[in-house]
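User: Here's a protein and a ligand (flavin-adenine dinucleotide). What would the complex look like?
Assistant: Let me lay out the input and then the predicted complex.
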Amino acid sequence: MTETAEYDVLIIGGGPAGLSAALNLGRARSRVLVIDADRPRNAATLLSHGFLTRDGIPPHELRRLAREELTAYPNVEVRSRVRVLSLRQTDAGFTADIGRRDPSGTATASAVVLATGLRETLPDVPNLRGYYGISLFSCAACDAWELQDRRLALIGESADLADRARLIARWTESLTVFTNGADVVTAGEQVELAAIGVAVQRHPITELVGERGRIEAIRLADGTSVAIDGGFVRPEWETELSFLDGIHPAVDDAGNLLTDRSGRTDIPGLYAAGDAATPGPQQLIVAAGAGARVAAVIVHDSVGVATAH
Ligand SMILES: Cc1cc2nc3c(=O)[nH]c(=O)nc-3n(C[C@H](O)[C@H](O)[C@H](O)COP(=O)(O)OP(=O)(O)OC[C@H]3O[C@@H](n4cnc5c(N)ncnc54)[C@H](O)[C@@H]3O)c2cc1C
């Protein structure tokens, strides 16, 4: 990239959503720039599941393969380990400042895809990060198969915890919900969970016990210790949009970007795909599909042809 470079489409984020959009836009002869800070949410995990033909692949390998495929398209440029520091709207489209901490270059584009994923905050439990992605996960569809029929935990502090427990209970008959002291499972929900064999522990968690990320027990403030082989946490997720400078796309009550079903935000020329665009499910193949769809929509919009999708 030169000091200021011009593109048809700037894609912010090089996960499956952004890279899939780049592949399909590249094939449509768009000049594409992908800027990727290379800090994907799934970096915590060793293996990714559920991506057709790539079940069980390490997440970094999936990204490497995708970037390698893009090298066949000279009209697609991928820059890693730099971020879009700010994005402004101009008469011609958008201008982005790009760099690590300070801007080292500028790019302009008539369309922008926000494929920045989500930022997640884990429940406030000591040393949870040390187990996350090894024996504690956040996505049942992604990782419950490997944990099935074992003694599982669900740790969370959000109001949807009982619903999540009902889902996870399909993979095991030994599930304990840990609310970590938060008042988030109602008495009625606790009765319903008990009816399907799910226990609820309401005391704050004082310690996760295990070795090298393999959890063995959860200790509670009342002195109880519950033996556990693995499980799930319920993080809080947020879309990180602070780099938008004077651009205010519609968001829902939780601050998540709102788009139409094709990935258009309410700002002309500004699109979103993958985890950054609600709704989920938050999965690699869904993000990749959303990237392909938004690419098709951008191509159609660029020539004023209506989309049927
Ligand atoms: C622990 C864990 C395990 C998971 N396991 C699975 C699994 O087994 N199977 C599965 O299908 N899904 C799994 N997921 C979910 C999956 O990782 C996501 O759904 C998927 O990565 C979303 O893709 P994305 O392209 O939208 O975002 P991401 O993959 O998160 O990529 C977004 C990229 O944008 C970059 N970025 C953000 N802001 C900027 C900026 N300002 N400038 C430049 N770049 C920026 C980030 O650094 C990142 O590289 C898992 C998630 C986690 C947390």
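Summary: Residues 7-119+236-303 form a domain with the FAD/NAD(P)-binding domain fold (CATH 3.50.50.60).
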